[in-house]
Alpha/beta hydrolase
Amino acid sequence: MQFLSLTVGARALLGAPFVLAALLGTTTTATAAPSPQVRAGNCGASIYQLDDGSKVDVGVIDDDHLRWRKEDGTTGLLTRNPDGAWTSTLGWTNRPDGKRVSFDCAENTIDFAGVSGKRIPLEVTNVAFEGAGVQLAGRLVMPQGTARVPIVVLVHGSEHSSALDSYSLQRQLPAEGIGVFVYDKRGTGKSGGVYTQNYLELADDTIAAKNEARLLAGTRAGRIGYQGGSQGGWVAPLAAKIEPVDFVIVGFGLAVSPLDEDREAIAFDLTSRGYGPGEVAKAMHIADATAAIIVSHFRKGYDQLAAVKAKYGKEPWFKYVHGDITFFMLETPEAKLREEGPVLLAGVPANYDPMPVLRNLDTPQLWILAANDHDAPSAETVRRLRALQARGKPVTVAVFPDTEHGIYEYETAADGTRVDTRNPDGYFAMMRDFILHDRIGAQRYGTSTVFRPAK
């Protein structure tokens, strides 16, 4: 979800957590460092080349939990055993998957479910740099060597958590020969400033991060671009339009406004449960009421909201109206909304239309979308992006079936709730290939449907 970070599931934010090695305000470089950062007691956190030819990334959740990820999208939670080894559960299900993992930190090796592996050394530079009037904490992670490599700047979603701690791509991509610059969004992690969802401010910070990455990489810097998930799908193209880059990748982002996102999510809530156009039309009256409060900066519109709650509150479909922000406004008393709303939606340009930027952006773009995304429904975004393709814009669109926000496959419980299991095969490879080659290949990327730009 992008509009509001209230309902972002932990699976969308859990990557491979790290601790910033350099204090804010300093720059340190660790040549051939074993990992961007490792917490005491979790020396196994790193990325490994396994003897079967695959790679596995291991990141810290806390002192007793790690998360592993492979390039095919499989993942699991590792829990420390009394004997020092670790056992795995599938995805975010808490269901054992039979994998047992152990580390030899002195030898920089791993035993992953019976397959041996060796830590991949990476070159890591931690830095404090100036964003748009605020000091930000960042990190450049490079593959070993002196060759020029493409560099991708990882652009935040709406989460409040530290990207330096949680983004696993900061190791997975360098292990494939790609440089990565990751940084904490203003007001999060080790960065200064006040948290905001103002896309222009965030785009300016993104541009500063790109410039810092190019400076740090020096002669090794090749093509450079952005990868942004969720809310980053609004920020990264805007940054690319302000100051050109070589490529943009958007994961589970939108080509509609935040208010339209909420409307589309409400419609998805109802249609996925079998309700028709009549019920959806009524639910849009609720969306109108919540939108009126948002655009007033939570100062007025509460009578309208109370009226639609009274009118539709006993309808059988009403309990399924969720959206991205409407659910919170339906459940929260007026006094609390007036107090907390402006903070929760700090800086959000609710009516922001991304299409003028996208229509005038000639940067090659890869959009990767989830077919069953109830946080950021993708159908209208796909339609708009394909229209841009028809106009000759260099936009590639990939849609993965049976996935939700974060491009996660999932299981559905009896009560309709989803539990994520993994990313689909092909998701990581698609991003890797686009960064390395400025395009994705002609081969299949898992089960995705790919719409390529017009020749």
